[in-house]
Design brief:
The protein is an alpha+beta fold. It has a single domain, classed as (Glycosyl)asparaginase (Glutamine Phosphoribosylpyrophosphate, subunit 1, domain 1, 4-Layer Sandwich). Helix content is 32%, strand content 23%. The strands form three sheets. Strands 4-3-2-8-7-1-13-14 form an eight-stranded mixed sheet. It has a four-stranded antiparallel sheet with strand order 9-10-11-12, covered by helices on one side. The termini are far apart. N-hydroxy-L-asparagine binds next to strand 10.
Length: 346
């Protein structure tokens, strides 16, 4: 009798295993090279954390869409600064850097925060100091392209658009320096967010599950174009830019970070999956929550459950669908999935 039981459970285990599509990695937008890099690590039995770090690093090196890595999205002073996050769903440990200056490899610095400190997030000049102490090279992140972009914004476009409000001179017409207008809040309470498009906001976000079933997630971005120096977006904030939990899965977000981080959409998507939602339903709930308050926001969430199911939802991309890349053990090649952003908002 017990032999039959063992036979049956072995057969069942084989069957379940043959259905599994893990290892798997999913990546925001069309960032194919990052997906391939991460996949090559996963398929050889490598760790999900390594896949995330290497995958996001490739995007930094290749300056994906100009919105990841050095030489993109200069701030008001013309400087590029970087935000990155990596989260380990096995230990719930996080490493992140925000407004990192003069160091190209933000994702790897984030990994060093995770592995060599008991902190979770380091920021600005002092994050640079940490990176240098960890052996990273300090160099300018400005390129001829980013310099040109900034010169055009400053001299030709008179610093439009920018992120100021309630200041003088009028930020919708003039450059700074600005000083505040007293009692502004009462006069202009109903401000509108800056209109962002996908070339202003294209963070790489990745979620991976490795052969052991460990989930990791991460992001890397140079943030918002012409941001006020010191600005931190959603990408390095755990639960906002990305979230991972071995018992459920992971999620990551991209889009208008100043709005999105107020809602922790990656955390919400993971929690929805914990309550039984499919990845698509979970991503929709997270996007829906934001859209209820900010009907003009632009963004997307991708989600991956521990059993290898994945899904996404997006908002505010106009008629364009939102693309994301997937590669799992059942595929010969990566696949670019697309979701329509115009699904009904309830
Ligand atoms: C930010 N969310 O800093 C980031 C930028 C981005 O796709 O593209 N996200 O707001």
């Amino acid at each position: 009798m017990s032999k039959i039981c063992i036979f049956l459970s072995l057969t069942l285990a084989l069957f379940v295993n043959s259905e599994q599509n893990t290892p798997i990695v999913i990546t925001t937008w069309n960032f194919v090279n990052s997906t391939i890099t991460a996949w090559n690590i996963l398929k050889q039995g490598g760790y999900s954390l390594d896949a995330i770090e290497r995958g996001t690093s490739i995007c930094e090196e290749q300056q994906c869409d100009g919105t990841v890595g050095y030489g993109g999205s200069p701030d008001e002073d013309g400087e590029t600064t970087l935000d990155a996050l990596i989260m380990d769903g096995r230990t719930m440990n996080v490493g992140a850097v925000a407004a990192l200056r003069r160091v190209k490899h933000a994702a790897s610095v984030a990994r060093h925060v995770l592995e060599h400190t008991k902190h979770s997030i380091l920021v600005g000049e002092l994050a640079t100091q940490f990176a240098v102490r960890m052996g990273f090279h300090e160099e300018t992140l400005t390129t001829p392209d980013s310099k040109r972009m900034w010169l055009k914004w400053y001299y030709r476009d008179h610093c439009q658009p920018n992120f100021w409000m309630g200041v003088t001179p009028d930020p919708s017409k003039f450059c700074g320096p600005y000083s505040k207008i007293d009692n502004f809040r009462h006069k202009y309470y109903n401000w509108l967010p800056i209109k962002v498009d996908r070339f202003n906001h294209d963070t790489i976000g990745m979620v991976a599950i490795d052969r052991k079933g460990d989930v990791a997630a991460g992001t890397s971005t140079n943030g918002a174009k012409f941001k006020i120096p010191g600005r931190v977006g959603d990408s390095p904030i755990p639960g906002s830019g990305a979230y991972a939990d071995n018992t459920v899965g992971g999620a990551t977000a991209t889009g208008d970070g100043d709005i999105m981080l107020r809602f922790l959409p990656s955390f919400l998507a993971v929690e929805e999956m914990r309550r039984g939602a499919s990845p698509t339903e979970a991503a929709r709930t997270a996007i829906n929550r934001i859209a209820t308050h900010y009907p003009d926001f632009m963004g997307a969430v991708i989600a991956l459950s521990i059993d290898g199911a994945y899904g996404a939802a997006c908002h505010g991309l106009g008629d364009d669908p939102f693309p994301f890349v997937v590669q799992d053990i059942t595929m010969h090649k990566y696949k670019i999935e697309k979701v329509n952003c115009s699904w009904p908002l309830h």
